[in-house]
Amino acid sequence: MRTIGFIGSGNIGSQLARLAVKQGYDVVLSNSRDPETLQVLIMELGEHARAATPAEAAKASDLVVVSIPLKNYADVPVEELRGKTVIDTMNYYPQRDGNIAELDDESSTTSELLQNHLPDSHVVKAFNNIIADHLTSQAAPAGTPNRRALPIAGNDAASKELVTSLINEFGFDVVNAGQLAEGWRWQRDTPAYVKALDTKGLEQALADAVRYADMP
Ligand SMILES: NC(=O)c1ccc[n+]([C@@H]2O[C@H](COP(=O)([O-])OP(=O)(O)OC[C@H]3O[C@@H](n4cnc5c(N)ncnc54)[C@H](OP(=O)(O)O)[C@@H]3O)[C@@H](O)[C@H]2O)c1
Protein backbone atom coordinates (compact mmCIF):
# COMPACT_ATOMS: atom_id res chain seq x y z
CA MET A 1 0.00 0.00 0.00
CA ARG A 2 1.79 3.12 -1.20
CA THR A 3 -0.85 5.62 -2.30
CA ILE A 4 -3.52 7.11 -0.06
CA GLY A 5 -6.38 9.04 -1.61
CA PHE A 6 -8.36 11.78 0.08
CA ILE A 7 -11.96 12.70 -0.61
CA GLY A 8 -12.06 15.90 1.40
CA SER A 9 -8.84 17.77 2.15
CA GLY A 10 -9.89 20.21 4.86
CA ASN A 11 -8.89 20.20 8.53
CA ILE A 12 -8.73 16.43 8.95
CA GLY A 13 -7.86 15.40 5.39
CA SER A 14 -4.90 17.78 5.21
CA GLN A 15 -3.57 16.69 8.60
CA LEU A 16 -3.79 13.00 7.67
CA ALA A 17 -2.07 13.80 4.37
CA ARG A 18 0.78 15.45 6.31
CA LEU A 19 1.18 12.32 8.45
CA ALA A 20 1.02 10.09 5.36
CA VAL A 21 3.69 12.02 3.45
CA LYS A 22 5.89 12.02 6.54
CA GLN A 23 5.67 8.23 6.55
CA GLY A 24 6.64 8.03 2.88
CA TYR A 25 3.25 7.51 1.24
CA ASP A 26 2.11 9.20 -1.95
CA VAL A 27 -1.14 11.12 -1.51
CA VAL A 28 -3.81 12.18 -3.99
CA LEU A 29 -6.00 14.93 -2.61
CA SER A 30 -9.44 16.09 -3.71
CA ASN A 31 -12.17 18.43 -2.59
CA SER A 32 -15.53 19.62 -3.93
CA ARG A 33 -13.95 22.13 -6.34
CA ASP A 34 -11.33 22.34 -9.03
CA PRO A 35 -8.11 20.48 -8.01
CA GLU A 36 -6.29 23.77 -8.66
CA THR A 37 -7.76 25.05 -5.38
CA LEU A 38 -5.52 22.58 -3.51
CA GLN A 39 -2.26 23.91 -4.94
CA VAL A 40 -1.08 25.62 -1.73
CA LEU A 41 -1.43 22.39 0.21
CA ILE A 42 0.20 20.38 -2.58
CA MET A 43 3.17 22.76 -2.56
CA GLU A 44 3.50 22.34 1.20
CA LEU A 45 3.33 18.53 0.98
CA GLY A 46 5.87 18.32 -1.83
CA GLU A 47 6.59 15.87 -4.61
CA HIS A 48 4.66 12.97 -3.06
CA ALA A 49 1.37 14.87 -3.30
CA ARG A 50 -0.93 15.76 -6.16
CA ALA A 51 -4.47 17.03 -6.53
CA ALA A 52 -7.24 15.40 -8.54
CA THR A 53 -11.01 14.98 -8.67
CA PRO A 54 -12.62 12.70 -6.04
CA ALA A 55 -13.10 9.94 -8.63
CA GLU A 56 -9.48 10.18 -9.75
CA ALA A 57 -8.22 10.21 -6.16
CA ALA A 58 -10.30 7.12 -5.43
CA LYS A 59 -9.11 5.31 -8.54
CA ALA A 60 -5.43 6.13 -8.08
CA SER A 61 -5.20 4.96 -4.48
CA ASP A 62 -4.92 1.68 -2.60
CA LEU A 63 -6.69 3.12 0.43
CA VAL A 64 -8.97 6.14 0.55
CA VAL A 65 -9.89 8.51 3.37
CA VAL A 66 -13.35 10.10 3.26
CA SER A 67 -13.27 13.32 5.26
CA ILE A 68 -16.18 15.51 4.17
CA PRO A 69 -19.32 16.80 5.88
CA LEU A 70 -21.58 13.78 6.44
CA LYS A 71 -24.45 15.44 4.56
CA ASN A 72 -22.44 14.90 1.34
CA TYR A 73 -21.58 11.24 1.80
CA ALA A 74 -23.73 10.14 -1.16
CA ASP A 75 -21.30 12.07 -3.44
CA VAL A 76 -18.48 9.62 -2.63
CA PRO A 77 -17.63 7.71 -5.84
CA VAL A 78 -18.75 4.08 -5.70
CA GLU A 79 -17.19 2.25 -8.67
CA GLU A 80 -13.66 3.57 -8.10
CA LEU A 81 -13.72 2.35 -4.50
CA ARG A 82 -14.86 -1.19 -5.23
CA GLY A 83 -12.79 -3.71 -3.23
CA LYS A 84 -10.83 -0.99 -1.42
CA THR A 85 -10.43 -0.06 2.22
CA VAL A 86 -12.13 3.26 2.95
CA ILE A 87 -11.44 5.18 6.16
CA ASP A 88 -14.42 7.20 7.36
CA THR A 89 -13.58 10.17 9.58
CA MET A 90 -17.07 11.70 9.41
CA ASN A 91 -19.21 12.77 12.34
CA TYR A 92 -22.88 13.70 12.49
CA TYR A 93 -23.79 17.25 13.40
CA PRO A 94 -27.50 17.84 12.65
CA GLN A 95 -26.96 21.64 12.63
CA ARG A 96 -24.50 21.18 9.73
CA ASP A 97 -25.73 17.94 8.14
CA GLY A 98 -29.50 18.28 8.53
CA ASN A 99 -31.47 15.59 10.30
CA ILE A 100 -30.83 12.00 9.24
CA ALA A 101 -33.65 9.78 10.53
CA GLU A 102 -31.61 6.55 11.02
CA LEU A 103 -29.09 8.45 13.13
CA ASP A 104 -31.68 10.39 15.11
CA ASP A 105 -33.51 7.18 16.07
CA GLU A 106 -30.15 5.42 16.61
CA SER A 107 -31.10 2.54 14.31
CA SER A 108 -27.86 3.04 12.35
CA THR A 109 -24.49 4.77 12.62
CA THR A 110 -22.61 7.19 10.41
CA SER A 111 -20.16 4.65 9.02
CA GLU A 112 -22.92 2.16 8.31
CA LEU A 113 -24.51 4.81 6.09
CA LEU A 114 -21.25 5.08 4.16
CA GLN A 115 -20.87 1.28 4.07
CA ASN A 116 -24.39 0.96 2.61
CA HIS A 117 -23.45 3.54 -0.01
CA LEU A 118 -20.24 1.56 -0.79
CA PRO A 119 -21.46 -2.06 -0.58
CA ASP A 120 -18.34 -3.47 -2.28
CA SER A 121 -15.81 -1.49 -0.24
CA HIS A 122 -14.51 -2.11 3.27
CA VAL A 123 -15.31 0.87 5.45
CA VAL A 124 -13.28 1.39 8.62
CA LYS A 125 -14.37 4.14 11.01
CA ALA A 126 -11.32 6.02 12.31
CA PHE A 127 -10.00 9.47 13.29
CA ASN A 128 -13.48 10.66 14.33
CA ASN A 129 -12.72 11.56 17.94
CA ILE A 130 -9.53 13.56 17.58
CA ILE A 131 -9.34 17.29 16.89
CA ALA A 132 -7.52 17.87 13.61
CA ASP A 133 -4.57 19.79 15.09
CA HIS A 134 -3.92 16.98 17.55
CA LEU A 135 -3.21 14.52 14.76
CA THR A 136 0.21 16.10 14.33
CA SER A 137 0.76 17.58 17.81
CA GLN A 138 -0.10 14.38 19.74
CA ALA A 139 1.41 11.79 17.40
CA ALA A 140 4.16 9.83 19.20
CA PRO A 141 6.39 6.83 18.43
CA ALA A 142 5.19 3.34 19.39
CA GLY A 143 6.12 2.49 22.95
CA THR A 144 5.84 6.09 24.25
CA PRO A 145 4.34 5.89 27.76
CA ASN A 146 0.62 6.86 27.77
CA ARG A 147 0.63 7.14 23.98
CA ARG A 148 -2.79 8.31 22.78
CA ALA A 149 -5.04 5.54 21.45
CA LEU A 150 -7.67 5.93 18.75
CA PRO A 151 -10.69 3.66 18.23
CA ILE A 152 -11.57 1.89 15.00
CA ALA A 153 -14.58 -0.15 13.90
CA GLY A 154 -15.18 -2.15 10.75
CA ASN A 155 -16.78 -5.30 9.40
CA ASP A 156 -13.72 -6.60 7.53
CA ALA A 157 -10.82 -7.97 9.58
CA ALA A 158 -8.12 -7.49 6.93
CA SER A 159 -9.06 -3.85 6.37
CA LYS A 160 -9.00 -3.23 10.10
CA GLU A 161 -5.50 -4.75 10.28
CA LEU A 162 -4.36 -2.44 7.48
CA VAL A 163 -5.82 0.64 9.20
CA THR A 164 -4.41 -0.42 12.58
CA SER A 165 -0.94 -0.60 11.14
CA LEU A 166 -1.39 2.78 9.40
CA ILE A 167 -2.59 4.50 12.57
CA ASN A 168 0.35 3.02 14.44
CA GLU A 169 2.72 4.43 11.80
CA PHE A 170 0.97 7.80 12.08
CA GLY A 171 1.68 7.89 15.84
CA PHE A 172 -1.17 6.36 17.82
CA ASP A 173 -2.16 3.12 19.51
CA VAL A 174 -5.41 1.52 18.34
CA VAL A 175 -8.42 0.06 20.14
CA ASN A 176 -10.54 -2.27 18.01
CA ALA A 177 -14.11 -1.47 19.05
CA GLY A 178 -15.66 -4.20 16.87
CA GLN A 179 -18.13 -3.96 13.99
CA LEU A 180 -19.26 -0.69 12.39
CA ALA A 181 -22.45 -0.85 14.45
CA GLU A 182 -20.31 -0.07 17.52
CA GLY A 183 -19.20 3.26 16.06
CA TRP A 184 -21.73 5.21 18.12
CA ARG A 185 -19.48 4.61 21.14
CA TRP A 186 -17.26 7.56 20.15
CA GLN A 187 -19.79 9.84 18.55
CA ARG A 188 -20.21 13.39 19.89
CA ASP A 189 -21.29 13.61 23.56
CA THR A 190 -19.61 10.33 24.53
CA PRO A 191 -16.72 10.06 27.05
CA ALA A 192 -14.23 9.14 24.28
CA TYR A 193 -15.09 12.08 22.02
CA VAL A 194 -12.10 14.39 21.39
CA LYS A 195 -10.43 13.29 24.61
CA ALA A 196 -6.78 12.21 24.70
CA LEU A 197 -6.78 8.75 26.30
CA ASP A 198 -4.32 5.90 26.30
CA THR A 199 -5.43 2.35 25.44
CA LYS A 200 -6.72 1.54 28.90
CA GLY A 201 -8.52 4.86 29.27
CA LEU A 202 -10.06 4.58 25.82
CA GLU A 203 -11.31 1.04 26.43
CA GLN A 204 -13.00 2.26 29.60
CA ALA A 205 -14.51 5.31 27.85
CA LEU A 206 -15.92 3.14 25.06
CA ALA A 207 -17.42 0.77 27.63
CA ASP A 208 -18.96 3.71 29.53
CA ALA A 209 -20.66 5.20 26.45
CA VAL A 210 -24.44 5.42 26.53
CA ARG A 211 -26.83 5.96 23.66
CA TYR A 212 -28.76 9.23 23.45
CA ALA A 213 -31.99 7.42 24.31
CA ASP A 214 -30.45 6.19 27.56
CA MET A 215 -28.96 9.51 28.62
CA PRO A 216 -30.49 11.00 31.76
N1 LIG B 1 -12.22 19.19 12.32
C1 LIG B 1 -12.03 18.23 13.20
O1 LIG B 1 -11.28 18.41 14.19
C2 LIG B 1 -12.70 16.89 13.02
C3 LIG B 1 -12.34 15.85 13.89
C4 LIG B 1 -12.84 14.56 13.68
C5 LIG B 1 -13.74 14.33 12.65
N2 LIG B 1 -14.14 15.38 11.85
C6 LIG B 1 -15.12 15.07 10.78
O2 LIG B 1 -14.39 14.86 9.58
C7 LIG B 1 -15.11 15.41 8.47
C8 LIG B 1 -14.26 16.50 7.83
O3 LIG B 1 -14.05 17.53 8.79
P1 LIG B 1 -13.12 18.77 8.49
O4 LIG B 1 -13.07 19.55 9.73
O5 LIG B 1 -11.86 18.29 7.84
O6 LIG B 1 -14.00 19.56 7.42
P2 LIG B 1 -13.55 20.77 6.51
O7 LIG B 1 -12.31 21.41 7.02
O8 LIG B 1 -14.78 21.59 6.30
O9 LIG B 1 -13.17 20.05 5.12
C9 LIG B 1 -14.13 19.38 4.38
C10 LIG B 1 -13.50 18.95 3.08
O10 LIG B 1 -14.47 18.17 2.37
C11 LIG B 1 -14.55 18.68 1.03
N3 LIG B 1 -15.86 18.36 0.49
C12 LIG B 1 -17.07 18.82 0.90
N4 LIG B 1 -18.04 18.27 0.17
C13 LIG B 1 -17.43 17.43 -0.71
C14 LIG B 1 -17.90 16.60 -1.73
N5 LIG B 1 -19.21 16.48 -1.98
N6 LIG B 1 -16.99 15.88 -2.46
C15 LIG B 1 -15.66 16.02 -2.22
N7 LIG B 1 -15.15 16.80 -1.24
C16 LIG B 1 -16.03 17.50 -0.50
C17 LIG B 1 -14.28 20.16 1.17
O11 LIG B 1 -13.96 20.69 -0.07
P3 LIG B 1 -14.25 22.24 -0.43
O12 LIG B 1 -13.33 23.04 0.41
O13 LIG B 1 -13.94 22.30 -1.90
O14 LIG B 1 -15.70 22.47 -0.11
C18 LIG B 1 -13.11 20.12 2.16
O15 LIG B 1 -11.91 19.78 1.49
C19 LIG B 1 -16.43 15.92 9.02
O16 LIG B 1 -17.42 14.93 8.87
C20 LIG B 1 -16.12 16.18 10.50
O17 LIG B 1 -17.26 16.09 11.31
C21 LIG B 1 -13.62 16.64 12.00
UniProtKB/TrEMBL annotation:
Residue ranges of every copy of the Pyrroline-5-carboxylate reductase catalytic N-terminal domain listed in the record: 3-92
Keywords: Oxidoreductase
Keyword tRNA processing recorded: no
Pfam families reported in the protein's UniProt record: F420_oxidored
Domain of life the protein comes from: Bacteria
The protein, known as: NADPH-dependent F420 reductase
Source lineage: Bacteria, Bacillati, Actinomycetota, Actinomycetes, Micrococcales
